[in-house]
Design goal:
The structure is a single chain. By secondary structure, this protein is mostly helical. The chain is 49% helix and 0% strand. The protein contains 3 helices and no strands. It is globular and about 40 Å long. The N and C termini lie far apart (34 Å).
Length: 68
């Protein structure tokens, strides 16, 4: 019986996945929340977000109710 492999890295996300999730929030009238989230990451727009922050940003998007 082999032990199950435990993933050692967080899931990775693409810019497109983040953009779709962000659009869901905008469509739900949550633009202010999205702008506040971007500001908390020190950027004005999703395009400015460094790839190293994609995972953390995706987590926060989920917390706001986006499906990602």
């Amino acid at each position: 019986q082999q032990p199950q492999a435990v993933p050692t890295s967080a899931p990775t996300y693409t810019f497109d996945q983040l953009a779709v999730a962000a659009t869901q929030l905008m469509d739900a009238g949550r633009m202010a929340d999205l702008q506040q989230l971007l500001s908390s990451f020190g950027v004005q727009a999703l395009m400015e977000l460094p790839e190293t922050q994609f995972g953390a940003f995706a987590t926060k998007l989920r917390e706001l109710g986006a499906k990602i």
